[in-house]
Specification:
The protein is of the alpha/beta class. Helix content is 40%, strand content 11%. The longest helix is centred in the N-terminal third of the chain and has 13 residues, at 24-36. The protein starts with a helix and ends with a strand.
């Protein structure tokens, strides 16, 4: 992505790239590799690199601001940090999309695990996760997050 932005000044002058990982070593390595790219200094807006755990505080921040068209990629190593609130906090903005890694096996294993109730409730929302009609993740995880996503009203919220 950064390489393309460097080669295309129109993109490079507009791109705001924020990279985050809970592992400081990964972030340091990514930052080092990015800065080694030929033409990195031509980017008008310097990429930001941070090291924090994704959680509800990120969704709260996204809810407070008007985002420019955004592509949010979330790879939560399973599902920690991923929530409908986070997804909806980005999708409510025009021309924004969310891509996330969703590990069905880990979710299915966690659905009936009492130690995982909090994470499952955050991911599927408590009412859905605990309903009498709750089913394994492979059935309830048909979360549509694309331009053709089924949306409830004009709010841009994801419908499950």
């Amino acid at each position: 992505m950064l390489e393309r932005a460097i080669k295309k000044p129109r993109i490079g002058s507009r791109l705001l790239a924020l990279f985050n990982d809970a592992d400081q070593e990964y972030i340091d390595c990514l930052k080092e590799k990015a800065e080694e790219l030929e033409g990195f200094n031509r980017l008008r807006i310097r990429p930001e690199f941070s090291c924090e755990t994704v959680g509800e505080h990120i969704a709260e921040e996204f809810e407070k601001v008007n985002l420019i068209p955004t592509l949010l990629f979330v790879d939560p190593w399973g599902y920690k940090g991923l929530s409908l609130r986070l997804i909806n906090s980005v999708l409510k903005h025009d021309k924004s999309e969310v891509i996330f890694f969703f590990n069905y096996r880990r979710i299915n294993a966690a659905v009936d695990n009492p130690m995982m109730v909090r994470n499952i409730n955050r991911l599927f929302e408590k009412e859905r996760a605990n309903s009498d009609n709750a089913t394994p993740a492979s059935s309830i995880a048909s979360i549509a997050v694309s331009p053709k996503a089924e949306r409830s009203g004009n709010s841009g919220q994801v419908a499950i």
